[in-house]
Amino acid sequence: MWSRIPNWATFNLSFRAAALLLVLAALGGLLPASAQAHAVLRSSSPANNEILDRSPSRVDLHFNEVVRLVSASATDASGDRIDLQGDTSGSVVLLNLPGSISRGTTIVSYRVASEDGHPIGGSVVFHVGTPTATSTEVAQGSVSPLAIAIWVVHASSIIFLAVVVGGALFDRWLGIGNPSPSRHDLAAFLGVLLFSTNIYLQGLDEIGGDLSLAGLQPFLAASHSSPAIASSLALLAVVLVSLPLTGRRSSLAAAALAMIAASSSFIFSGHCSVVEPRWLARACVFLHGGVMIFWIGSLIPLWRASATQACAGQLLGFSRAIPLPFVGMLLAGGGLAWIELPALDTVLLSMYGRVLLLKILLVSLLCLLALYNRVRLTRPALAGSQNARWRLRRSIKAEMLLAIAIVAAASLWRFAGPDQLQFAAAAPLSVHMHSDAAMAQLELQAQPDGTSTVRVSLLTPDLDPLEPSMVLLRVKKPEAGVEPIKYSLVRSPDDVWEASGLPIGDPKGWEADVQILIDDFTTVHLEGDLAPSDDAAEASASPRSADADY
Prior knowledge:
42% helix, 22% strand, Immunoglobulin-like, alpha+beta, five-stranded antiparallel beta sheet, five-stranded mixed beta sheet
């Protein structure tokens, strides 16, 4: 682009090819066994693994965003599979169950498409009477061939779009003008082939198929999805730059319209465009995608232009035009990461965060190349230095490899929204404790990182608010040899005492002691077992003097 470091310039082609293969192999290692997608099942009714007295008439699924039902089925205790019909209202899916569901364990499997068009599947298990199946664990599979195909085609589509549309804008704005009509025809043909394949693979994923020919069903399934709109806009952009226009102004206008269509396609192809605030997310996606297309598409024309001094004007024009948009692309990317990532301490806990860190690393290498080129190589190359021009050409090749790696990393976000749970998250564990002096309702909520948060509500025996000066929590697991761990609870704005980071994944076997400092001389201890039971744990404690534990 603007700058290239001399180290890359000395590497031969085989080394660069090996480096690219290594990066792509690392990216492939991040591929999930199946698409994790972006909608998340928040809760269900019946709850997962709930034991019921009689069969429910329906199953309600509550997601974190608007979804569309693709398919659903129920497998009862006898092994019979029944296709289910249902209705969708925003983020809630209502599945109607037949009256013939037998007693025992029933597995309700669903497949829905999130608002950004990406499909997810999962199951909810409930038991009517005595459970007849106890294992609901999902075996970890190998990387799906369909997931690999979706990733490769998606990344290839972006590179193709950038080379054709971004390259056309460079040629018609800063370069030589229109290429030959034969290249236009080839670009249109490849565009139809590539983006049709993209839609077909999306449809296969949506219907839950594998990597195989399935007639027209995948096209029909994906025809009304957001990725289909994105592919259509991308194809429109390719067609616009393939029009046989001869005038410079008309061809430049067509390239500009194609850039708008190509940039708009990204709004429909990712989860970032449907998170709040949507106006900001979509503006960032549009800017980030548009500049990326122009930058990547300019690399091949720049490589050609750097061959002779006669094309120095193109190098100078690009060097002057790109800095501000490039900074805008980086800021837009940072804005999208800020919108999508909930907290910095959760970066490594999700695939989204890990892919983000990889992309930041690759973009940082790109920025170092750009900075060195801007400071050390641009002027000598424009002045006619053969050595600088040679470095420029070699480093543009390195920049092409980085572009491929960055797009390949970004394409992994097709699978990397908020971590998808196979089953509905368990409701918070609630434990009631009381004594003659105080009452406490303790809620324990499991977190994605394997820890738990705790919230404790305090009342007097007369159900009046209790105003202690301090609340401590001690948890221990005697059967595992875990000695008491003490936490100082913090009062929240809603008058609940809370703490986070408790090392409790499975609460079975853990014991809790809530210590309430009412005044300088009186402490109330409320003790109970943290066991997932329908019966509340009750404390048989009595007030103690404060110096008993302080």
